Amino acid sequence: MINKSGIFSKSCSHALKAATFVGKKGLENKSVKLKEIAEEINSPLAFTAKILQKLVKANIIESIRGAKGGFFVSQEKLRQISLKEIVFAIDGEGSYNGCALGFEKCNASKPCALHFQILPIREKLKETLINTSLEDLARAVGENTTFLKE
Amino acid sequence: MINKSGIFSKSCSHALKAATFVGKKGLENKSVKLKEIAEEINSPLAFTAKILQKLVKANIIESIRGAKGGFFVSQEKLRQISLKEIVFAIDGEGSYNGCALGFEKCNASKPCALHFQILPIREKLKETLINTSLEDLARAVGENTTFLKE
DNA sequence: AATAATTAAGACAAAAATGTCCGATTTAAT
DNA sequence: ATTAAATCGGACATTTTTGTCTTAATTATT
Ligand code: FES
Ligand code: FES
After folding, report:
1. What's the CA gap between B99 and B112, in Å, rounded?
2. Which of B28, B78, B91, B96 has the fewest CB atoms within 10 Å, i.e. is most exposed?
3. Pocket lining: A129 vs ligand 1, CB cutoff 6 Å
C-alpha cells in the first residue's frame, strides 16, 4: 500500500533485501549467516530471522542448520525466482491483484471508482515483479550499482 | 503498500470513496450527511467521520455543522482537487515518493536494489494521481460506470 | 560424547493502524 | 429559549503489523 515507506510493507522490503543479499553471496556459491544478513540489510536480527524462515518455507532460499550453517540460494534458483515469488511469500496471494478500493475482488464487470486509473499501474507492477529475477537484483548489488542500506 | 487490499491503505481507500461520493452529490450542488456517506461507501460510521474530518481540515471538502448539516464540495473544488491531494491528506507527504525498500529518501545517487524497477511505476502512479480530478471519479460514479461498493 | 555455533519455533511485547464511544459544539426549526 | 439534528474532538478499544526473547533442534568440530 502507499504509505510513508513507499509501495511495499516493511516485512516485504526486508524480505526483498534479505533475499537479494543471500543471492549476492549465492552468485559466488557462498552461504551467509543470519547475523551478517541482518547487518547488511540494516534490519533487526530477530525480525530478519522470522522473514528468512518464511522465505525458506516458500522454497525461495534454503537454510543450513547447525554450526557452519546459514542461508543459501543456488545460482539456478537465483535465475528461477522472480520478485513476484518473494512478494507472494510475504504478503500472501493476490497481493498486487487486489482492488485499489478494497473490493473483495477486482472485477472489471463491477469496477470500483479507481479501477480504470489503477489497472494499468498494477499491470505494469505485476509485469515488473514477474520479469525481474532475484539474480537481476543480486548482480546489481554485487556490482555496487544499487544498494541494500543507506 | 502492496497488501491484500491492494495499493492503498484502508483509510486512504475510504477517503477516496467518501470524497467521490460527496463529489457526486456536489455535481448537483447537494450536501450529504455522514450517515448516508458511510452507507454508500460501506465503511463504519465513526471511522468514516474521522476520515471526513481529515478531508475537511485538508480543505478538500467542507462541512456544514448543525441541523441540516452535512458535507459538501463545490463544483469548482471538484475540478481543482486531484487524487494526489486526497492521498496526501490521509497518508501524509511523500507517500508515493518514498523508497520501495524503506530508505529515508529515494535517492538516485544511492539507489536501492529496486530503484530502477520501481521508479517508472511510481512515476506513472504519481502522474495518474495528479492528472485525475475528483470530478473525474465523481462523474463516472454518477453515470454508474464505476462503483463505490460491491 | 561433549561442546559450540547455528537455525527453528513459539510465546510474548510494542507500535501502528483501524475502529468505537461519548460529550461538546453548532445550527435550524419550533 | 428549547429542542432536535448534525458535525467536532478527544479518549478509548481492537486488530494487525512489527519486533523480541527464550528454548529446542541440528550439525561441525574436538
Ligand atoms: S475493481 Fe477496484 S481496482 Fe478493479
Ligand atoms: S532509492 Fe529505493 S526506490 Fe529509489
Report:
1. 8
2. B28
3. no
Q: A140 by DSSP, 3-state: which?
A: helix
Q: Of A132, A139, A133, nearest to A26 (Cα)? A: A139
Q: How far is A98 from chain B (nearest CA, A)?
A: 4
Look at A91 and A86; give whichever has higher pLDDT.
Answer: A86
Q: Region A116-123: what's the mean pLDDT?
A: 96
* pLDDT at res. A101: 95
Topology given in CATH for the domain delimited by A10-141:
Arc Repressor Mutant, subunit A (1.10.10)
Q: What is the DSSP letter of A93?
A: T
CB B81 within 8 A of CB B133: yes
Q: Residue B92 pLDDT more than 90?
A: no
- Which residue reads 498486487 in cell numbers? A96
- Find the Å distance, CA of residue B150 to C1' of nucleotide C5: 55
pLDDT of residue A118 exceeding 70, the answer is yes
Residue B11 pLDDT level (bands cut at 50, 70, 90): very high
> Other CB atoms closer than 10 Å to residue A84's CB: what's the count?
18
Long-range contacts, stretch A102-107, CB < 8 angstroms, 24+ apart: A102/B5, A102/B6, A102/B10, A102/B13, A103/B149, A103/B150, A104/B150, A106/B6
Distance from the alpha carbon of residue B106 to the mean position of ligand 2, in angstroms: 4
Give the pTM: 0.93
Q: What is the pLDDT of chain B when averaged over all its residues?
A: 94
Q: Where are the domains of chain A?
A: 10-141
> pLDDT band for position A2 (50/70/90)?
low
The pLDDT of residue A3 is above 90: no
> Which among B88, B54, B91 is positioned nearest to B71, based on CA atoms?
B54
CA distances from B108 to A11, A41, A44, B68 (A): 23, 18, 25, 52
